[in-house]
Amino acid sequence: MTTPRTILITGGAGGIGQGIAQAFLETGNRVVLADSNAEAVHSAAAALGATALPLNITDERAAAAAFKTFEASGGIDVLVNNAGILSVHGAVTDLEASAFRAILDVNIVGTFAMTQAFARHRIAAGGGGAIVNISSIGGRQPTPGMGAYESSKAAVDSITRWAAIELATHGIRVNAVAPGPVLTPMLQQGMPEGSAERAAWANRIPLGSLAEVGDIAPAVVFLASQGAKHITGISLPVDGGQLLT
């Protein structure tokens, strides 16, 4: 029988975070949902049977303290850096630097702060463990107007490789999952079924449709599992073949 692990998922109140949490719970693991929205994360955790952790991931002291709270109960075994924002769109000639900086602060600095805190936590415990970052194929395939977000996800892929090579000696694996567009409740609201916008995206994808949340979670669970014990430093596209076009 596999020993249950404790999984910490940032951005846990969002659609992808909840989908990943459900997949880990179904495989017998314990889940901690972290999110900056305290009310939303408590609600999501209660619905799933997970633990809620209000957390600003850009605050490195708060990130370090979050892991300390779980030391007495055995610590955190897996970190899923899912939190990220796509708060603005804008052309390179129009986007304000302050708007660009806001995305970088969450998507890059937040991912780094959590990665660093988890690595220190695991090294103090004797090593081992896994990190799975949620990146995006946008880090490799540009879309006009989305450059700030896509730049941040290219950096997430770079952080993944950097952490993987440095933490390997401690037995800590670091990988990423890079989705294309995912049909979260928020995206479905902005691109309803039958809309020209959704059809345009689907036409870019060889498999002919946008990903469901349930298409992303299995890749995350796999990369965090013993089945991937010899895999580190990769960014796995889950994009229906979009990077082929």
Automatic annotation (TrEMBL):
InterPro entries: NAD(P)-bd_dom_sf, SDR_fam. The keyword Glycosyltransferase does not apply. It is an enzyme of class 1 (oxidoreductase). Its EC number is 1.1.1.47. It comes from the Bacteria. Pfam families: adh_short_C2. GO terms for molecular function: glucose 1-dehydrogenase [NAD(P)+] activity. The keyword Cytoplasm does not apply. Belongs to the short-chain dehydrogenases/reductases (SDR) family. This is Glucose 1-dehydrogenase.
